[in-house]
């Protein structure tokens, strides 16, 4: 036994067991997040519950959202009549009824002894709306400007509404944005020249154009307001829902397995490609995906040359003295600084000092409204570049240290300069370590939230950092981020219970991006390692 312990084999098995357990935990966590998040888009069956409580009978229609077991004595302490309950425990149902504008809430809580019957609701439809969440009910009619038309034309009306909404969105995001930019440029010229009267004619033309666009939008909205769907909700009341507010209608209890898969894929596609609605509790996360990826790419462009140059100086040029040791200690300590400290530094230095100076030099005519002297995506990228800089420096320096000095000496002996040796020989061989450090930095930056809350990320961004307006790349704009989206929906949402599945879905999306980046790093590193293995030998 002593010989076996001294051989080190127990520690090998212990390490292998710890690694295996960690992998199992990580995979289990990913499966849990994926199941909770992706399951949200599956068309759940809608039930009709007959309820009897305190002598009153009622009907509830909705999805069975959650079922919990609660002690009966706890219910009695809360003042609930439990005289007819059997056993020490009972079940409590959380039913998602939707119809927030009618019922005042998305959920209803019912105790199992109060349920007389539960069965799938025949002919029930789930209606996804722009506002007030989902609506559960039975479509009974369709009207066009108050005139009843066949309900079979509902699908065609929805398709026409989608076309009109796309036209409205295009006008708002192109024509109105361009017109607003022309107004700003005209006002800037008037302020520079100090004479507003000579621009009266141009301003009148722009105002006429604005009236035309406004009239065009009004006409399109009137087209949408013509049609309405008459839906009977669970209380028996018939409500007219404007087609303008309806995004999709499906009958979950009538869908086949193939139909459910198609619906699930379509809903998942909308989640990835649409803009958020209802304070981020509805809709998609495309602006957050775009903002996260764009910010990380911008950060990569900044941190890569800085990290590589610093590592090359420390390993290839700097002498082994006290000053170099202090720099190394500082780099190591920077890696342990809390991320929120970087956010405070970015806000104070980049935004309030550098950004303010840029505004004074180049955008003085727009002051006191700041352009770069306010949090934006550029300052977020710079802040995260400083945060991840130690990772790139350490990784690159380790890669440089693994290259034998004989390769450097051979290159110098053949007449190459030190710079040529670094550029053509050393750096290509160290590229696996450089790429690994970069991708690890990207993976960390993609999940950071705390510093971004101070230097650029927002709950809702009115426009993307890239659009069709000159200069096309707007680094001064604020942006949305997947990590902040998770925080906002999970902790700041006015309807946390309804938005909880979106937290899982967005978390799974963010984890998938980070895992993909790490796998990419491993693939690139292995490819480059095989490519330069012959040179190392």
TrEMBL record:
Q: Which UniProt keywords apply?
A: Cell membrane, Coiled coil, Membrane, Transmembrane, Transmembrane helix, Transport
Q: What is its main location?
A: membrane
List the subcellular locations. Cell inner membrane; Cell membrane
Database matches in InterPro entries: MetI-like (IPR000515), MetI-like_sf (IPR035906), Phosphate_PstA (IPR005672)
The membrane-topology field of this record reads: Multi-pass membrane protein
Family as reported in the entry's similarity comment? Belongs to the binding-protein-dependent transport system permease family. CysTW subfamily.
**This protein's superkingdom?**
Bacteria
Q: What is this protein called?
A: Phosphate transport system permease protein PstA
Task: Identify the coding gene.
Answer: pstA
NCBIfam families assigned to the protein according to its UniProt record, in alphabetical order: 3a0107s02c
Pfam family name, one: BPD_transp_1
Coiled-coil stretches are: 169-223
Query: So where does this one cross the membrane?
Result: 12-35, 285-314, 326-356, 376-400, 421-443, 502-524
Per UniProt, residues of the ABC transmembrane type-1 domain are: 289-521
* UniProt key word Secreted: no
